[in-house]
Amino acid sequence: MTYSDMRHPDAIAFDFDGTLVRGGWDKGVHILIAAYTACREGGLADLVSPENLERDLDRMARAYMNYMGSPRFQQLSALVNALLNDRPWAVDDPARLGLDETHRRAYETVRERYNALYMALNDAAARLYWRPYPSAKETLARLAPDFDLYIASGVLQELLEADLDRHGFERRLFVGILGSSRAGGMDKGEILVHIRGKGYREVVFCGDSNKDCTYARAAGVRFFRIRNDASFGELLDRARRREWPETPEPWEEGPELAAFLQEKARRPLQALIAGRPMTPEAISRWINEGG
User: Fold this and answer.
1) How does pLDDT run across 198-233, given as a tens digit for each residue?
2) Which 3-state string (H, E, C) describes 166-228?
3) Cβ-contact 68, 258 below 8 angstroms
């Protein structure tokens, strides 16, 4: 984590993926593919059922939708719990998944395989498709003279900093660039509490997911939703007037997201089951272009 001293009385924190950089729903598909593949190849193959792929897709999609915007290993535990127990909820200790001793040992291998696959899929999408929103960088530059700006992300710290550089964001604009750790510490909620605790008059968190809204409410900060590029114009206007919307109740993602996750994960997993796994680049093209 990187910090500098407070410069202004108010702060605006930004999620990264899906907020400053357009990722769409790709990451959810990546989570499903990485979790299923890691279980199949990492010693938990009996958790998945190739002859019941539709059942597994449905269970994983429901679990992911409960943890959009959460740290990746929390998402993994929810998907494993859904596959094993049809309970789409994360647990803080793998022992609570009901795995026997052999499977508990395999879970660490699954975590490593899942993380590597997820990173490879994200890297391919970032190279081929993911770009900053057209107005994101200009908005940050216009906000920085009047607000302390932060990144508050569930992305691993080292990956977050690499992605900032990859996409050409100016680090000097931010008072803090804060991601999660491999040990699982400092999710977005904890980061927001830490920022609020520095004594700002007001803190606003800009995010794109219902989980981001939940984090903001729990931390006692305001929430502004980034829906598309036009959101940045509204953000600048509200920042100029210091008029922020009331933090909404978290919303439920619609059935179109579940359908998208299952549709886009189906073909890569069918190819995996058939012994013809697709490359991360091919998967990314399928998600973004279809055909």
Assistant:
1) 999 999 999 998 889 999 999 999 999 999 999 999
2) HCCCCHHHEEEEEEECCCCCCCHHHHHHHHHCCCCCEEEEEECCHHHHHHHHHHCCEEEECCC
3) no
Strand duo 2-3 + 222-225: pairing: unpaired
Which residue, among 80, 2, 90, 7, has the nearest Cα to 38 in the 3D structure?
80
Residue 222 has phi, psi (to 5 degrees) of: -75, 160
Q: CA distances (Å), 191 to each of 74, 143, 210, in order?
A: 16, 20, 17
Q: pLDDT by residue (tens digit) across 45-56?
A: 988 999 999 999
In which residue ranges of the chain is pLDDT below 50?
Answer: 1
The candidate with the shortest Cα–Cα distance to 187, out of 46, 52, 72, 62, is: 72
Q: What are phi and psi of 88, to 5 degrees?
A: -80, 50
The CB density around residue 249, as the number of other CB atoms within 10 Å, is 10
Report how far residue 283's alpha carbon sits from residue 270's, in angstroms, rounded to the nearest whole number. Answer: 12
Q: Are 209 and 113 in contact (CB under 8 A)?
A: no
Residues listed for the chain:
291
Could you give the CA distance from residue 214 to residue 224 in angstroms, rounded to a whole number? 12
